[in-house]
Task: inverse folding
């Protein structure tokens, strides 16, 4: 039976210790999803350990799909099961308990449906609000040492202060390190953007590409443009009221407002009328009201009509 939901090359990078932090989380989350995944994982790990025992490739074995198909049956018959069990137990110890503690690390993943938001309380007392279409993975309980979570999307954090245990948010191309503070991170992978805003405390932004870092002071935000971060003062705090279920905008263009609807409601908006006015608008909507209600309200300020293709989830602005 083939593996479902996991790439075999990724799995072998994981065994070799070559996987990134995000890839490690992906593998561990996949293992926890079902008993079938766990059994498949153990079968693949057995093959990997057999290859190491026989000295085929040293400590950086790379087994390709064809090699796997030809050898897995013969290898499983040749090596005593006691050796497999020993190697497997060593692996499980280092990858699931960690070197800093003996407790099993159980990862949780939260996927927020579009048009909704979720509020979480982590085991250390940290409070997190996740915005529409966001995903976050985090341990059921933090092991001794650091506290780490993995974010794809937008989240607002109120981190429980602990000087000895820094809190790290892995978000796309950047890591956000804090001790105890209030900040917002906007890092949807499908948009390729990154923005972090600090409301209270202190945070350090670290590039995963070259490890360069930037300290951010309260009331400032850092926005990624190209491959650099640009810092500016926060001028509108209402935009962070999304955690209250509000979409707020101040002196924002009509087209930019439509782009935010695409993000929050997972739809595509096509402007067909190129002569349509693009005024700056100020206002707020409840996320739960839906995109079409918001469009009807905007029609009071902008002269446009719209139609919606339900099958393709596209709204056409005319």
Result:
């Amino acid at each position: 039976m083939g593996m479902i939901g996991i790439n075999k090359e990724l799995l072998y990078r994981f065994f070799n210790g070559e996987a990134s932090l995000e890839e490690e989380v992906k593998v561990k989350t996949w293992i926890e999803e079902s008993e079938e995944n766990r059994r498949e994982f153990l079968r693949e790990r057995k093959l990997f350990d057999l290859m190491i025992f026989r000295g085929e490739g040293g400590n950086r074995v790379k087994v390709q799909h064809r090699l796997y198909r030809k050898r897995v049956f013969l290898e499983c018959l040749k090596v005593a099961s006691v050796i497999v069990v020993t190697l497997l137990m060593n692996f499980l110890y280092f990858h699931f308990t960690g070197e800093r503690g003996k407790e099993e690390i159980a990862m949780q993943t939260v996927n927020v449906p579009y048009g909704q938001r979720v509020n979480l309380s982590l085991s250390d007392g940290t409070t997190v609000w996740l915005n529409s279409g966001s995903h976050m993975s985090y341990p059921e309980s933090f092991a001794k040492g650091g506290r780490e979570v993995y974010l794809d999307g937008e989240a607002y954090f109120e981190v429980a202060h602990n000087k000895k245990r820094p809190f790290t948010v892995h978000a796309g191309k950047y890591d956000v390190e804090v001790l105890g503070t209030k900040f917002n991170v906007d890092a949807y992978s499908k948009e390729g953007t990154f923005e972090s805003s600090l409301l209270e405390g202190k945070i350090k932004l670290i590039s995963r590409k070259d490890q360069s870092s930037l300290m951010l002071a309260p009331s400032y935000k850092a926005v990624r443009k190209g491959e650099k971060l640009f810092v500016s003062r926060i001028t509108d705090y209402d935009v962070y009221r999304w955690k209250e279920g509000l979409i707020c905008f101040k002196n924002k263009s009509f087209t930019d407002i439509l782009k935010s609807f695409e993000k929050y409601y997972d739809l595509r908006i096509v402007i067909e009328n190129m002569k349509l006015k693009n005024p700056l608008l100020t206002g707020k909507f409840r996320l739960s009201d839906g995109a079409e209600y918001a469009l009807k309200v905007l029609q009071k300020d902008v002269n446009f009509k719209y139609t919606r293709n339900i099958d393709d989830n596209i709204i056409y602005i005319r």
Remarks:
- The first helix runs from residue 8 to 16.
